[in-house]
Amino acid sequence: MTQYQGILLLGPTGSGKSPLGDRIEAAGLGRRRFCHFDFGANLRRIAGNEPASAAFSPEEREFLRKVLQSGALLEESHFSLAERILTQFLETHCRDEQREVVLNGLPRHAGQAEMVGRIVHVHSVVSLQCSEQVVLARIGMNVGGDRTDRSDDNHSDIRRKLAIFAERTGPLVDYYRRAGCAVVALPVTAEMTPEAAWAELQSRVMASHGW
Questions:
Q1: How many domains in the chain?
Q2: For the whole model, what pTM was predicted?
């Protein structure tokens, strides 16, 4: 299996990962070009019976709908589904050997990280840092324009996701740091746009890592 090169966006719900990933795909980062793998968006397309769902059985699509509704994380026993979604995306969108992948939404815990590592070598992590208050403000204003028609943006669901992030996903920063990956911290404010986040990230990458 081909091992791709990439970076991982880590941050709580509402921190702007998806709009930032789109911006990185459009404008690059440092001197590198990327394709953006948005795991949540892919899950929603498959669960919604869009064309991307054709490769998945009705039972698999129903399982993914329940995952989305509950906000649960795919554990190792179900990682084969995530692997299929990721590999299909990479084979379709990242065939250019000079393009890397921006991972967003996968991996979300250490077990997934070990399995994703067989497919993508993550050399850098971008840690989007913001408080619960900032998250709620950003979602309320739909700063990145990616929260339209999201049924999971009520306060109880948001707080549940933040708790899961703090317990399972946030520790991935240290996981990757121990593995020798570069970690770029990006403080996110309530009104920070994707363009502003990208510009700040570009500045930090060029200053500290020289990609």
A1: 1
A2: 0.91
